[in-house]
Amino acid sequence: MILQRYILRELIGSFLFAFFAVLAVCLIGTMFQVVRAFPGLGLDLVAKALPLTVGSIATWVILVGACTSSTLVYARLAAENEITAMRACGIHAWRIVAPAVLLGLLLVGAAYPLNEAVVPTMRHKKRLSFREAIVYQLQHPPAGSQDFKIGLMRITYMDYRDGRMVGPTVSKYGVAKKTQEHKLMMEAFAPSGAIVVQDNQLSIVMTRPYGWEMNEKGQQELFSAGNDVKFDIPPEEMNVPRQLPDKPADELWELYFKSKDQALRNQILLILHTRYASSLAPLLLVLVAMPIGILVQRGSRLAGLGAALPPLLLYFVLYFVFQGLGDKSRVHPLVAAYAPDLFLGALSSVLLWRIAQR
Question: Model's pTM, two decimal places?
Answer without folding.
Answer: 0.80
